[in-house]
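Newbie here. two chains, one complex. Structure please?
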Amino acid sequence: MTRQRRPTGGLIDRTRPVGFTFDGVPYEGFAGDTLASALLANGVGLLGRSFKYHRPRGILAAGVEEPSALVGVGQGGRFEPNTRATDLFLYDGLQAHSQNRWPSLSLDVGAVLGAVARFLPAGFYYKAFLGKPDLWKIYEHFIRKAAGLGRPPVAPDPDSYDHRAAFCDVLVVGAGPAGLAAALAASASGARVILLEQDAVVGGGLLRDPARLDGATGDSWISAALATLTARGVRVLVRCTAVGYWDHDLVTAAERVTEPGQTPDHDGPAQRFWRIRAERVVLATGAIERPLPFEHNDRPGVMLAQAARTYVARFGVVPGSRAVIATSHDDAYRTAFALADTGVQVQAILDTRPASDRPIVTEAKARFQVMFGARVLRVAGGAAGLRRVTAQTGGQVLTFDGDLLAVSGGFSPVSHLHMQAGGGLVWNETTAAFQAGDARQNQSSAGSAAGLDGLSEVLCDGWAKGGAAARAVGFKRAPGPAPQVVEPWPGPGHGVSALEAPIGADPKRIFVDFQNDVTLADIDLAWREGYRSVEHVKRYTTLGMATDQGKTSNMIGLARLAANEGRPVPEVGLTTFRPPYTPVTLGLLAGHRKGFQVTPLRRQALYAAHQAASPIWQPSGYWMRPRAYPRAGEDLHAATLREARTVRSAVGWVDVSTLGKFEVVGPDAAVLLERVCATTVGKLSVGRGRYTFMLREDGMVMDDGTVWRIADDRYLLTSSTGGAERMAHHIDYVRHVLAPGLKAAVANVQEHWAGIAVAGPRARDLIARLAPDFDIPPHMSAARTVMAGVPVQVLAASYSGERAFEIYVQSPNVDPIWTAISAIGATLDGCPYGLEALEILRIEKGHVVVGGEIDGRTTPHDLGLQRMMNPARSFVGAAALQRPALQAPQGRQQLVGLESGEAIPEGAMLVTHAPGAAEGHVTAGGIRALEAGAVALGLLRDGHTRLGEDLVAWSPTRRLSARVKVVPPMFYDAEGVRYRD
Amino acid sequence: MLRIDCPYCGRRAQAEFAFERALDAVLPLDATPEAAVQTLYARTNPKGWTWELWRHTAGCGAWLRLHRHSVSHEIAAVHTVADT
């Protein structure tokens, strides 16, 4: 066994063993382990297969930047694919699965395929789609099988997710040395501070490298710092990743309460989504180590140098037995010491620099074989692990045996949030890295995120930035001196970077995106094919487009593009960082807004009364309205026909409570209404009402309804159910913006007044029996009375074409009226009716409806409403309606009626002959209530001049068609005889 | 997400507000047909400082004129529409 757990050391709790499985095999780790550290401790180094070529994948990193060690974790609805084993803390019963392998991880058929189909070049998909269409059929089978890395869960997510909002003076992102110092300094000034850490514990680099701070060890200094912060009321959130930095200093963060795949042992949420509004933000987000480019640099056993040290120091795991260190700077030398101190045989340190006499190098030379000007050319190894490292130095090729190659090609400051906040990046020539430049919001970067290097420098910078942030908010108290740092090897160590591939190495085998299998050769190909912008190269090659977003190796690819271009890296630039910084569970973003909480359900006052009659419900906006009230043995069609016939022959009643209703009051009430409505309003006498419609600003009809003058300076306007919110907004817009200063108040009384429409030849009888002394108003008149002991407003309006009354009553008092109507109505052979019968009745009467004929593209003229328009043209939409295109209405879709002996399919296109070009469509199709045959409304090109034509209503997708005759849109009582008593 | 200083309610999150339209897209009731076409269909969409119409929908309901930078999202002024 080459990898093993050390008997002591690290931050794991050896008294608390934790059982877990990987691909069904049971293992044991300890509390504090990540899945990656526990697998390493158990000698497991192969975790999956790569996306395109099924190359073996091991563990590269020890944090969220991990591109390779992705697993599926959990069961059923809690299954989470593509989870980083390095960012997954062990819990009892954890079940992890390797990905992208078949039939098993060690014996993978896809790997053979990958070796044969060497290699899918950059832009493969683009070329496949541009090629002959027939070829796609061949590709498709292969691509569909190969597409996607992890599999999505198949069951609904059973967990709940919480959303929280928080406010603070100073938000510190990252609780490494810089972040802790910033939080200490800011809170010392009295500022309200929130500190976020994505790891399960705070400390960052202090957990990895030995140092003494203010005379204490790293561990005890961290504990003391935490105690101080807590005592000052600082909110410290661990396992909480700042994923987005939005406008006006809003930072969103994802907090893991449970680990991926874990069943919560509490009633609370699995994760919390934080929206934190800060006055100042200190970004102490650290830096991410880069790998080195060489052949097969993606093999298991190749590990970032800091990660190797982290496994030793934090998790007490020895990640190999014979190690080679390849670096371009001092920092990775610490890994040599850390490994050697645990008994690992360090074969050699390969330093890309020509020479160095820095203290750590001098000390290393005494213990290890250190070679300067040395580059790794290639490694040999596979699924079973690393075997050999081949390097060259000064023209000499050397080979080392080894099962661990710790690499470091420099560091990339984590400037993702800085850039998301609109900040600029600057190129640091020394470190060969982009780092935070100009800030656009109230942000500052501290420590290694600001390109600094060396514990003392990083810590002092955090202290200074935290203090400055608090001062900027107005907390003037000085925080005192920064902690004193003593390190074995003080000062900067990161220095030089190595981005270029060694001469003589094959670019086809040098990987720059470990997750998407992008090689240097792909970057070269993209460049040869003319791609110059980094953003284009990214999309063409998929460099940096995997779930890790290229956190580790992206720079190597971009440097290659720059080298091809012959331009410096900063000129070629960097692709844009966008939120989220790390992948976020979709359920977390949704929060509680799932299931019935996605949209509100509005219940009308008569909801319980309807429910008692077991209607078929129909959604209507946010409302549920009865579609029909079927009796025993009736289906929807039979119930609808019975209800419609009852209205035509006796009496029916329908709940119209959901209609939009507005009370407009004041001396200028009529003027305001004549701005909103396209009809005249001011000429109405008290107690009278009329049909009205409203236009959008572009002259198209928006909605329709009725307007009533219920007192001298008081009007009631009704509008459609679905358009009620839009109408409320529109009236408000007119009142406040277009016609300010009018003496008119508007109240949206949609839910204040419940409404019941009573319609049919016996409607008047029913009203007379409900209110015996009532002077029943004629059609389109309004009156008040008392029914069933309740005051009501009666509007004699009709939608069905029968004599009808709308009875409005204060919503809480509507039940007795409905009960009384039902009782008296039954003696008149009446029944309640639903939306479906209403639809049949209104089609027969030729009434237009919002969403049907009023479809946002029809003018008053198209709908035959132009004669009702207010000649003063003082209303919204009047100006646009005078556009020449609408004034010479040739070729417009106009409202017509359609008649047929057979059913007319709704939505069908109107054609002269089928098949043929559409000349219009059927907006609403129905049947006649009392006679045989079908009628429909439709919009037809130049329809008003085509009466009498024979057309076909044709729906090829549903294989339906009907011969129809074009007629005027009015099939029932054109003279309005039935409105009269 | 922006923070907007409502003249009535103070500084609130953008989630409480609704963007209505650019102020130059407000079509006066007495506009000519030509002006209507211009306003409705030939929007300017400037890069830089703009005047916009907002509404404090989940707050006091006030209609607001906002002076906002379309790149930096800086808000230089917030007035009610009545206060011109």
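Moderator note: The mean pLDDT of chain B is 94. The radius of gyration of chain B is 14 Å. Thread marked as resolved.
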